[in-house]
Write a structure and sequence with these properties.
The structure holds two protein chains of two kinds.
Chain A: H1 4-13, H2 19-37, H3 52-69, E1 71-73, E2 78-80, H4 84-93, E3 97-100, E4 107-110, E5 122-125, E6 129-130, H5 132-143, E7 150-152, E8 155-156, E9 158-159, E10 162-163, H6 169-188, E11 195-196, H7 206-212, E12 224-227, E13 234-235, H8 237-249, E14 252-257, E15 260-261, H9 268-286, E16 290-293, E17 296-297, H10 306-322, E18 327-329, H11 340-356, E19 359-361, H12 376-388, H13 394-408, H14 421-424, E20 425-426, E21 431-432, H15 434-451
Parallel strand pairs in A: 1-13, 5-7, 5-19, 6-8, 7-11, 12-14, 14-16, 15-17, 16-18, 18-19
Antiparallel strand pairs in A: 1-2, 3-4, 9-10, 20-21
Helix pairs in contact in A: 2-3, 2-9, 3-9, 3-10, 5-6, 6-7, 7-8, 9-10, 10-11, 11-12, 11-13
Chain B: H1 3-15, H2 18-28, H3 34-54, H4 60-84, E1 92-99, H5 106-117, E2 120-129, H6 131-141, E3 145-149, H7 157-168, E4 176-180, H8 186-192, E5 196-197, H9 201-216
Parallel strand pairs in B: 1-2, 1-3, 3-4, 4-5
The chains are: A alpha/beta, B alpha/beta.
Amino acid sequence: MINFIDVCDRAATGPMMIQKDYDTKVFIPALRRAIKKYDIKYDRKELVNTDDTLADRIFEAAVEFYSEVGTYITDTERVIQFTKPEILEGVEDAPKEAYFGEGPDRCVMKGRMPDSDELPYCHVGSGTNTTEENALRLVESYARISKAKTISIPIINTLGHIRTAAGAPTEVFASIRAMQYGREGCRRAGRPGLGIIDHVSSASTGVSTIASSAPQFGARPSDGWLVSPFAELKTDYSSLNQTAYLTAWGANIGQEAGPILGGYAGGPEGLAIVNTAYSLHGILVIRATYHLIYPIHMTHVCSSHPDVLWATSLSTQAIARNMGVPYYTLLYAAAGAATKMYFDEALACLLMLIASGSGIEDVHPGRAKITDGCTPVDMEFTCQVGHACKGLTRKEADKLLKKIVPKYADKLAGAPLGEKVDECYDLDYFKPKPHFEKLYAEVLEDIKSEFGIDLVRY
Amino acid sequence: MDTEALGAISAAVEEGDTDTLISAVTAALESVPPIDIIQNGMMIGLKKIGDMFGRGEIFLPEMLMAAEAFQEAMKVVEPKLIESGQTIESSGKVVFGTVVTDIHEIGKNIVITLMKTHGFDVVDLGANVSPTTFVDEAEKYGADVIAMSALMTTTMTYQKDTIDYLKEKGLRDKYIVLVGGGPVNPEWAEQIGADGSSDSAVGAVELATRLIANKKRGGNPA
């Protein structure tokens, strides 16, 4: 695979163009050509793709598309380009396993095929907002979920009464504290070696990432650092600096991206290709050892929309069948926490992912916009579904989704806000409050009676 | 009014076909007043595109191509419009940017493009825009609305800084301030004293339209 130093050289010497021209004259036309050439069509008959040949065409389309568009660097206004042979060599050489954590908590994330009876990788937690007061207990509550192999830790957006700000010293402090709370929370849960693989959500800049990754704050190379792009297929020197530091350290790097259905990717067909192309970008530019995608619908700002589900099922299968890289997916529900609609959306998302070959993370409630809007119950639910539904085929999943999705599809716009974690979950006793416990018991009963899925509480 | 010519102009905008649009506009200028070409041809096509986008029938690429074609055609029509002494009434003037330290632009670009299809005059300040720049540019362009996008939790705090700066300068009531972006929700908008926020581009356009109308009637924007 091409060396990272050569990638940096291309960032400084590749073709120069303004960002708008990259979007409108390079990205959009190349995507349209790829959709046409590889005959990618969404007939709306399936919610989970069951066609292997279509999944493979998505991969071929993504390789061709990425060979035409590359990755745009905003600092230099240049495009890092790769040839098709370079891309395919990168896919062949990319890490197929990522090891996280230490001691008894050490685990491996691997690629997984569609329709596989292997247990899907269960990752829990949330990189969404919390206050400093809640951060430690939240992490402890995530780490107590025994079936979770790794966790994400929240973003601290306040230091006492001061709100943190990107690029400011407050962000450096918040990032360091998030790391410290993350490690301490794992210790308190009795899992000191647990891998934290969303380092460091509180850090939006390279300097904060690097500062908070110092070992004295608890970071280990066996954790995982997410390096994000800008929509679509753009990055900057701050992100490449993170990669430079992390590769030199030998740490796990996660390629993360949240492509937008309705944005530059266009409709579901384009989204499936762009989702897949992000993993190519991840391998070659970010030097990813693992991959995370979180596509959303532009209008509904969630991932449980049928168009996003289909596109994600397709790209997941394209990646699983043709790349075999460690891969998990984070999807967003429109409904807030502690609502029945949330569990309908989450179940649809998780079943699609499990059957398509992805690792799973708890579906985030309330479009992930609400401070303290995720609950440990969402995370337990994820592991329960993962364990109960391993071996689910795409055909079975499609059949189930055709029953589940109509329950919420026309309610996305007015989805209930739900509750914050403090309102529905007791962080002292680490259990749902009585009203949420009652609702959750009903949800599990409904899922068993309606869909025949018996979710065991651990 | 040459309905056939205007229909062809509207269709070319919808298609985002710049070459055909410029040919059609150039030909129409021989016999159709420039204001009719804009209002009854180009704007009709652009409005249709905006409505289709709102209904989820088309996506950003189609809308961008239409807006691009529209802007290129305006370069042909505008000199004739100025010559004629007529003007187009704008839906409102907006200065729009992504806040300082944040270089995510897609959300902003989607809303700007949709606003243009609805007749707004939008000044795109780009990304990494400081509070003083928002305010200076709003003053310079005589804006009705200051719109700020922020994708990250740690950057949305700069939306508040801009509002605080407006207050310091005694200019807060002069502008409608809208905020948006990934982590932004109505609770945050209210907390920092913005006039509103929206999850979607369609919602943002509706909100701006409503608040400008309220303000023109002399009411409280919100």
